[in-house]
Structure formats: C-alpha cells, structure tokens
Amino acid sequence: PDRMPFDEFCGNFLVVPGLGTKAELAGKAPKDRVLALLQKLGVPGQKFRCGKARVFFASGVLEGLRTRRLEMQAKVAVAIQAAGRGHIARKAARQLRRVREEALQAMLSAAAQEDVEALRAAIADARAAGVHRYAAGEASVAGAEERVAALVAELRARREAEGALEKAIGAADIAELEVALQRAAGCKSDRALLERGERRLATLKEEEKRRKEEEARLAEIKRKNVAAAAEAEKKVAEERRKREAEMASRDAALVKQQTEAKLRQKEELIKQQSRIQEEAETADAESIRRSVAEEEEATQRAIEEEEVLRKQVLQELEADGVRFRSGTEDVLEYAVYLGMDLREDVGLLWIADQALQADDPEGWDQCESPNGDLYYMHEVTKQVLWQHPLDYQYQQLYLEEKKKGQGRLDRRGSSNGAVVAPPKHGGSRGIDAPPAGGPVGSSDDALRRVLQQLLGTSHTELKRLLTEPATCRVPVRCFVIRHKSRMGGARFDFFMSISKTDDMYCFTAKKWSVSKGCYYSIALDQDDAKRAKASSSMPESYVGKVRSDRKAQEYTLYDDGASFDGKDKGGKSELRCELLHVNFSNSLRNRNPGAMTVVVPEVDSEGGMVPARPKDAAGQLNERLKRGDLGGLMELKNREPKWNPTSNMYQLDFHGRATLASCKNIQLHPKHGEQADVSFLMGKVEENKFNVDFKAPFSALQAFAFALIVFDNSSGSF
Q1: What's the pLDDT band for 538 if we cut at 50, 70, 90?
Q2: Is 40 exposed, middle or buried (0-12, 13-18, 19+ CB in 10 A)?
Q3: What H or E segment, with its residue span, contains residue 670?
Q4: d(Cα 394, Cα 425) in Å, to the nearest integer?
Q5: From its phi and psi, is residue 363 left (phi > 0), alpha (psi between -120 and 50) or beta?
C-alpha cells in the first residue's frame, strides 16, 4: 500500500482544502493533524490507516490526492496569471485614456482656432487614438470635422471675396466695388486690401461727382445754344412765311388764269368728242348688224356642215360594216360633245361608245334645276357638277389617244361587222377599259387576261403583273382594308376590283415594331406577311418592304433583294431595287399636307421599270433626290385643291371615290405635267376602308406601298 510520513503528508496536502487549513491545524499533534486533514480532504476512513509515524492509503487514494493537489495548484496559477493580466490591462487602459484625453483636448483647442491644417492634424491624431470609438468622442470628432468644413468654406468665400474685390478695384464700377467691399468685410478679408478698396471707392466717387458737374455744365451750355438757335430759326421761318405768302398770291392769280383757259379748251374738246361719238355710234350699229348676220350665217353653215359630215361618217361606217354597242348616231353625237373631229378622229369613236356604255359612278344622282337644267349631285358629299362625272375622264382618255396619233380608223379586216375596240400598242400598252360584263371566270388564264386588260401589260406571271408598272391610262380601281390592333402591328389588305361584282385579293402588309422609323413587310399571302420580316429565310410570297427614317419623313419601298451593305440579305444574293421614295417636308398632320415629293422609276419603251439598284449609299433614291440626279426617275407631287366661291372653301374633286373627310385623301400627278393627269388617288369611304386608284407609271405594289406610307405618316408614328 501507499504510505507517507505525517509531516511530509501535511506539507504536501495542507493547502489543498484551502489557505486557512494551516492555521486551523497548527496546534495539533502530527497524527491528529493528518486525521483532520484527511477528513477535510473527504477521504473515507476505510481508505487509510494511521501508524505511529506514517499514514497508509488504499490503492489509488494517494494518486487521487496528488491529482487534486495538482489541480489546486493549477487553479492558483491561473488566478495569479489573471490577476497579473488584469493589472497590466488596467495600466494600459489608464495610459490609453490619458492619450485619448490629451488628443481630445488638443483637437478641441485646435477647433477653437482658425488653422485648418492644425485642426485636420488634430482630428487625425484623435482618430488614431480612437477618440471616435465612444459616443462622446464621436460627437466631438464630428463637430471638429464640421468646424473644418466651415473653415474651408469660410476660407473659400474669403478668397472669392478678395478676388472679386481685386477685380472691382481694377474696374471703374462704383456699385460693383461697394458690393465687393461689403462682401470682403463680411468675410474678414485682409485689412490692407479693404483699405485699398475703400481708397479706390472714394476716388471713384470723387471722379463721378466731377463728371456729373461737368455734364450739368455742358447741358446748360447746350440748352442756351438750342434756345439761341430756335430764336434764330423762328426769325428765318417768319421771313420765309412772308415770302411764301407773296409767292402764293402771285401763283393763285396765275393758276386762275390757266384754269379759265383749260375750261374753255375742255368745253371745246367735249363738243368735238360728242360729234365724233355720234358719228361712231352710227357706224358701229351698222357694223354690229352686219357682224351678227355674218355670225348667224357662219353658225348655220357650221351646223349644216357638221350634219353633212355626221351623215357622211355614218354612211362610211355602215359601208365598212362597223358597229358599236351603242347607237351609231348617239356615238357620233357624244364624240362631238367630247371635242372629237369626225374627219380625223374616226378611229377614236370607241371612246365615245365606251363612255355611253359605262355605268354612272357610285353616289351620283341626276337632278334638274328650277330652270330645267340638268346637274349631278353626290349623295354623301353634296358636291354639284354641271357636267356628267364621266365626261372629264373620257375627255382625258381622248386627249391621251389623240397624242399617240390613233385618230385614223384602220379599216383592214373590219368589214366583218366586229365591234370597234380600243387599239393595242406594241402588245404591252393596251388602253382597255375595265370589263363591263359579269363575274370573271375562276380559271388562271381568264384571270390573267382580265389583269392584262386592266393593267395594259403582257406579263403572264401573277407576281410580275402586280409588281411591274401598269401602262393603262384609265385608272385601275382598288381599295385597302385596315385592320387595327391594340397591341400595335397593324395589318392592311389590298384588293383590286376586276369587275363590277368581283374583287381580287392582291397583297397583305404587316407593320413591325422597330427601334428606328417604321417597317412594313408586304407579301402575296396573309399568313406569310405575318412572318415576312427580313430574315435568313423569307417566304416565296414576300415581295418587298417599306422603311422610313427615324423622323418618319423619308420612306422607301424595296423589293425582295439584298441591300448593298450586306446588313439585310434576307437569303437573297441579287441586289435589291428601290421602287418608290417619298420625302415629306411636313407631316400630314401639319397645315400643309401637300408638302411632299414622290419619286418612282420611269417606264421604258418595253413597258418595264427602269431599275434603280444602288450599289452604294450615293446611289440611293433619297441621295439622288437631294442632289437633283433624277435621270431615269419620275417626280410626282400632291394635287392642290381649288377655291370654290360657292362653298367658300378649298375643294378637290375625287369623282365620288372619297366620301369621308380625311387627311389621307390624296391625289398625285406628275410634277411637271398637268394637275388633271392624276396618276394616284386615295379616298376614304369607311372607317377602315380606303379607295385606291392608280395608272401608269404606278404598279399595284407601288400604289399599295404609297397608301401604307400615307397611313404611317398621318398616324404620328415618329
């Protein structure tokens, strides 16, 4: 068993229960002291035995006591170390507090001064000492920084005030110098500078005082001089008045004499003119009677000659077996009314026949005036015409054919009794009127024939019939249906009237949202138009697009080719053609909607379009228009309205094709031609339906594109 002498045991474990144990056990015998110590240590009696000089322990007891002794020593060591660290920390804290208080006092002292740099250094030292780490110190640092900002602002204001004062001292403006002095004094500027400014101010005031005195003296001198001059002028005027009175008296006497002489001459002249007038009236009356008789005889001879000529032409036509759909006498009478010469224009009688067979325009009613005169009134617009609405149209057709030299009737092969029909010109410029029969047949060949007859072309492919220019002189009637959308991207359908009852679908255009200007894609199919925005693969029915600039003032129609810069190839390798360009000087919403220029390629001798295929930016239609390079191009403009004194307003006759007022009602004619030669007409008839008529040099595609441009420009898309 473990054992240990009494004195050694007490020496080793006396302090384990506590520091007061040694004093408590000091007067006891060694064995009693050991027993008391073991009891304090909590060792059970069965775990030890005391001998005469030693104490014996059971196995492991002594080792456990030693462990407790080591733990107690460790605790004591930790307590001693903690006490040492606390002492050191309190010392460091006292040192830090002293440093912070010194830095704070230095900062507060610097803040009481006006030295900005010293205050900034004190703030930096206070921050380095950690003054800002507690609330009171943070407030002090913030106050010091505000003081720095105030001092900097005050210093800046002082410098500005001193600079302004220096400038005012160099100038000669008293008011400016006074303001600068007040400002510099308020900013506590340099006293020497202030004194210099005050001296300068006193000098300027003294100079101003002397200047005013001098001006007052000069003004007094001037006043005296003016008074003396006025007195002298008064004397001169009095003398002049006396001389003029004398001269007037002499002149009055002379004038009286001359007036009396003129009156005598005038009376003699009047008597002479009266005699001459009486003689002339007698001679004129006889001359007028002779001229009236001659005119009546000439008129009667002309009527007789016209009747003889009409019978002669009628006999010739009957002999040649020529017949018309209307009565021959009616045709001849209407031909004379249109202005035809029956001697030279026999070959153009088909125009009169066609006019007599044509239906009246929609909306026009024939009325009779109280005097028995016939006139025509439009049932919607109430427009009145004293001439039949179709007369003007067929007069223009007659003049066009007259220019081409088609007046003589070619009688070869006409003896079979065939109806006289409009002639063909080279197979590509027919001037056929729209068919007057019923519905057009459903076959493709019949449709092609109808389109060829309407458009005056010889193309057989439907796409070319609609995209190549028409050569007809009678307008082709079409209409556009607008489909609005709340979400944007409006759609437009284009139809052509091919008979009285049938309309043919031609194109669909879709508006796309783009970042710059507008974008319309045009296709022969409604579904393809919805996805025909230029891409790497475009549908076969895609025929072109309309683009504008950012301000929506310049519009261009392109075909389905690729752009010269390669940005818009669209799966095509051939360069694109520019088919139409419109430049608006003003928007259609402005007061002058006619301020536009329209440019289209000319039509060549074969009836095709002169290609405008730019290879660079300089070759584009807009650039050519700017520099006046219009070779191979036709320029058109908006037809101007005429003043109607009856309605007291400007009006434009749309021949019944526009029944609603709209800024989209437009007529185009060649810029250097007659205004009556209308190549394009657009008129509103319903909320979303617009009539569109066109003829050469427009194609159906160009007419539809121009209608789209009118829609876009008048809707405010830019």
Answers
A1: low
A2: middle
A3: strand 666-670
A4: 19
A5: left
User: How do residues 430-458 score in pLDDT, each as one tens digit?
Assistant: 333 333 333 333 356 778 888 888 888 88
Q: Is the pLDDT of residue 534 over 50?
A: no
User: DSSP code of 548?
Assistant: E
d(CA 475, CA 496): 11
pLDDT in tens, 677-687: 899 999 999 98
CB-based contacts of 125: which residues, under 8 Å, 6+ apart?
103, 106, 107
What DSSP assignment string belongs to 38-98? HHHHT--GGGEEE-SSEEEE-TTHHHHHHHHHHHHHHHHHHHHHHHHHHHHHHHHHHHHHH
The kind and range of the H/E element at 129 are helix 116-129
Token reading at 198: 């005050």
Query: Which tokens is 696 given?
Result: 């050469």
DSSP category for residue 413: T
247-295 pLDDT, tens digit per residue, is: 888 888 888 888 888 888 878 878 877 788 777 767 766 766 776 677 7
Q: Using CA atoms, how far apart are residues 44 and 48, in angstroms rounded to an integer? A: 8
User: Distance between alpha carbon 715 and the CA centroid of its chain, in Å?
Assistant: 11
Q: Which one-letter DSSP state was computed for residue 124?
A: H
Rounded Cα distance between 596 and 682, Å, is 15
pLDDT tens digits, residue range 200-235? 889 988 998 999 999 999 999 999 999 999 999 899
CB neighbour class for 66 (10 Å; exposed up to 12, middle 13-18, buried from 19): middle
What are the structure tokens assigned to 361, written together?
Answer: 């325009």
Q: Is 434 helix (H, G, I), strand (E, B) or coil?
A: coil
- Evaluate whether 58 touches 48 at the Cβ level (below 8 Å): yes
DSSP class of 658: -
Are 700 and 508 in contact by the 8 Å Cβ rule? The answer is no
- What is the phi/psi pair of residue 670, to 5°? -55, 135
Q: Which helix (H) or strand (E) holds 667?
A: strand 666-670
Distance CA 556, CA 577 (A): 10
Q: Please, are residues 596 and 562 in contact by the beta-carbon 8 Å criterion?
A: no
pLDDT of residue 702: 94
Give the 3-state secondary structure of residue 379.
Answer: coil
CB contact at 8 A, 467 and 455: no
Q: Which long-range contacts (CB under 8 A, 24 or more apart) does 101-110 make?
A: 102/129, 103/128, 103/129, 103/131, 104/131, 104/137, 104/140, 107/131, 107/140, 107/141, 107/144, 108/140, 108/144, 110/144
Q: What is the pLDDT of residue 586?
A: 59
Pair 663, 589: CB distance under 8 Å: yes
Do 177 and 168 touch, CB atoms closer than 8 A? Answer: yes
pLDDT at residue 174 in the model: 86
